[in-house]
Amino acid sequence: MDLTTLRTPIVLNGCETKTLLKESITAMALPSHPLFAGRETLSLTELAEQPLILSNRYRKYMLSAFEQAGLFCDIYLTCEDARTAMTMAEKGLGIALLPASMLNLTHKLKACTITDADLTTEILLAWRKGRLPSELRAFLELWDENDSLNNQIHVPQP
Fold first, then answer.
1. Backbone angles phi, psi at 45, to 5 degrees
2. Are strands 15-29 and 110-114 parallel, antiparallel or unpaired?
3. What does the pLDDT look like over 32-58, one tens digit per residue?
4. How many CB atoms lie within 10 A of CB 63?
5. Average pLDDT along the chain
6. What is the pTM of this model?
7. Are 19 and 139 in contact, with CB atoms under 8 Å apart?
8. Is the peptide bond before 31 cis (omega within 30 degrees of 0)?
9. Rounded CA gap, 92 and 89, in Å?
10. Comparing C-alpha atoms, which of 46, 81, 40 is closest to residue 66?
């Protein structure tokens, strides 16, 4: 495989990457969850006292964020897949900590931004160092040119 997409956090030995998308990790639960009523944001302190649902991908990352804030958290469930974590939250089993874009996959959950931590994930293009076919190199160069144009052009908002 010459080129793939990956989501962070991930260990990438011997790979080069290009960020396609960066998004925040948000807290998601049923709208009827008492902590979510009338709220758009939550703090790590508030989340530390709740039963949390995490996919294994984010477990160490989230534990580190709570630890850096001097907090312990209650990980109620861990699962292999973010979609499973979302399903568990839809069943009312706790608060899932997931990429913000996952909210597009459900109409049952509400998302709140986590205010006191910079919790992000990225989608990356990844390839092996020194092993990029000329066609893919041209594709990445075209991508870079397009990014430069997009950063220079200001489109007024209505």
1. -60, -45
2. antiparallel
3. 999 999 999 999 999 999 999 999 989
4. 14
5. 87
6. 0.81
7. no
8. no
9. 5
10. 46
